[in-house]
Write a structure and sequence with these properties.
By secondary structure, the chain is an all-alpha fold. It contains 19 helices and no strands.
Amino acid sequence: MPEGLNMLSYGGCAVLIALYAWERFNTPSSNRYSTLRGLYWSSCVGYICSALLLFAALSLLLEAPAWRTLLSLDGKGSLPAPFIATLALTTLLQSVPYLKQVDRQLLSAFQELGAIPAEVRRRAAAMTPSSFAVSAAEVTALRDHYDGGYGENFPNHLREKGLSGLEKSQYRLTRVAVLYDRILQLATETRYERFFAENESEFDALKERMQAFMRRAVKSLDSISRARGSLQSGTSNATFDDEVYQDLMAEWHERFAADCREHFILLARFLAGAVLRAETSKAAVNERLREIGFMNPPEPDEADFPLNSLTVLGLVIFAYLAVVTVWFSARSGTSASVGLAAAGKLTIARLASIGMTIWLLQRFAVLRRKPGEQPRYFAYLVNGALCGLLAGGIWALFRLGDGMQFSVEDGRIGLLSGMLCAAIAFCCDVGESDTPAPIWLRPAEAIGCGAVMALGTALVYYLGWAPIMPNFSEEMRLVTWIGFPSAMAMMAGGYVPHIYRGARRALSVPSVPAPLPTAATGEHPDPKVAAPNIIAIAGRVNNAA
């Protein structure tokens, strides 16, 4: 097969592999709103990359004559290696036991890494009725917007506090009604339109169930109110033991509390999915839940991944490499288009390795020091080695179809990226993240990272791995090879530790807590039982004597 057609086949097959991996990761569709957006995208991209690496490895094996002979694929009518690998990892995946098992383990590992669906369950479990605050203004607003669908006395049962008895049961109903009203308001916001459109049937079923509950609860509270009014006014003809009556009322209140709690938890689960799907970061999720009325528990010590800041860094690095490429092409007489393509590839490899450095530091506590500890030098080396392997692997992926043999260029990219990432990890971890950095720290980190890169490029040069530069003297080649990569490393060193500390510092900024509820609410467990008919209780009261 011609080289150009071979490269095109590998590229097309890689796109198909990525699309199939995307589909498998998003099955069921609820995966998209069962975790934080950053965790979702990082784990999804990781799974797609693992599928592409599996495709590359399988294609490499199928390119080897020995494997083609073993699998009886060396005939003239056999398909090329990338096509066979694509079929094995897509439509035939369920029919290949070993590949199916590997893919299942990878999928499970990356979904667990992305907290799918653990995050939405954790959020919903923390959104308890006792952590939900109701204000007088909210109760007034709900009364003003009432349209009569739940019974004429529905506004009379709304209250912002309730300590015991009927008032406490009314307060429980109020919390459910306010939370339900907040979810209805979210459905009208542009940011949440997509979630409610994707879950339209579930939302319709939720509305139908909540409306039935509201009407049933209002009728039950009306009956209790009338019975209590009759007893207090002395107009009731019933004769009964007061202790029996209190027991019956306590039973009713427990059942009513269980019914309210069941529907509150149902709303909280739906709300958790909506907020995780629509909000862009953990801070935004927490802020939205506070606006709704939840007093959030303390979050784990984990900063948001600085995706936007790294995007800016990537654009700056590419612009720098583009300028260097144009200058180099004009001086050496080579094609600028080829150099710009290499600049784009190098930007992706460098940026991915730097992003992995930050992600590893944020995600795994064993790779960063605790306050007061000495720097963990071995952890920085491990971080650099992993990131170097990633950069070298990304660079190798751009050579799909060229035999996938290890080259000096792959080793050079991996070595320099690993040294830079180890230096960045050291700078990120040594500086204090909970206090403003001194003015001299960023220049010192930039110079330090540049010095590490200069050491690495000098080592590569004396090993004979430096690239050939036409029309350059040996002295100019040495200066250029060491100077330009070191300048790029200084950009990363002066920027990446700064954004890492900023993300960590945001964790220590205290948030304004939601107002405390006006009454303590001791909730009962969540038994699956509905509130009994108040008429039956009244009959039991009248018959007790």
